[in-house]
Design a protein that fits this description.
With 211 residues, the chain is α/β, with parallel strands linked by helices. Helix content is 28%, strand content 20%. The protein has seven helices and seven strands; from the N terminus they run H-E-H-E-H-E-H-E-H-E-E-H-H-E. Strands 3-2-1-4-6-5-7 form a seven-stranded mixed beta sheet, sandwiched between helices. Helix 3 links the parallel strand 2 and strand 3. The longest helix is centred in the N-terminal third of the chain and has 10 residues. 44% of the residues are buried.
């Protein structure tokens, strides 16, 4: 289920692209946030103007004409209301039979809105301090993800895929985003210096490094 009937508008953008593939943004906002203790997507840092999902959408909108927010059953209604007035944002949630199967099921939900081969720029709400410089750099390579010298950040990535490709990975039972990026999409890392932009907000304790 999607928040509004925007599937046709997404398809229209793709059909009118003359050269290459239209790049769509995906915000992964459907995590269970168990380690964080509350919905990470709707959490707003004290020094930020928007909540985490709002920050992610705003950054992707600088590079993508349309952004898909992949929510979960618990925050879907709230996120749909948050973006109800923005015709360039569509909120969706996990699609059967792949429900609550991690980030890959969130990516699958997004591909259900654009089933054919599509170019995606992905950003999880876990990265509230992400910079547009990093995102822009990722768009210069066809299939890639952000990395630092000590860690891979698969949920900050740029890749091409289709609904069928993601479905096949899920049907095989391999839910690892790392496998999907490196083996299925053959994405390569683009290494950035370690910085606050790549702090992953897994636990509330991480806020001491963010605020």
């Amino acid at each position: 289920m999607v928040a509004k009937a925007a599937t046709s508008s997404i398809t229209t953008h793709l059909n009118h692209k003359k050269e290459g593939l239209e790049m769509l943004g995906i915000v992964l906002a459907g995590g269970q946030s168990q380690r964080f203790g509350q919905d990470k997507a709707r959490y707003q840092l004290a020094n930020q103007p928007l909540n985490n999902v709002g920050l992610a959408v705003a950054k992707l909108q600088l590079l993508c004409e349309h952004v898909i927010v992949s929510a979960n059953a618990n925050n879907f209604s709230a996120l749909a209301a948050q973006f109800a007035s923005d015709q360039h944002v569509t909120v969706t949630r996990d699609q059967a039979p792949f429900v609550q199967q991690g980030p890959l099921s969130g990516i699958y939900a997004a591909t259900c809105l654009s089933p054919e081969l599509t170019d995606y720029l992905l950003l999880a709400v876990d990265y509230p301090l992400m910079t547009t410089t990093i995102l822009t750099t990722l768009t210069t390579a066809a299939n890639c993800y952000a990395a630092t010298p000590t860690r891979d950040h698969y949920l900050v990535s740029h890749f091409q895929t289709s609904q069928a490709i993601v479905r096949d990975d899920l049907l095989l039972g391999d839910l690892r985003v790392s496998h999907f990026m490196t083996a299925t999409c053959q994405a390569v890392p683009i290494t950035f210096p370690a910085s606050r932009a790549l702090i992953n907000l897994n636990k509330l304790e991480a806020l001491t490094d963010v605020n």
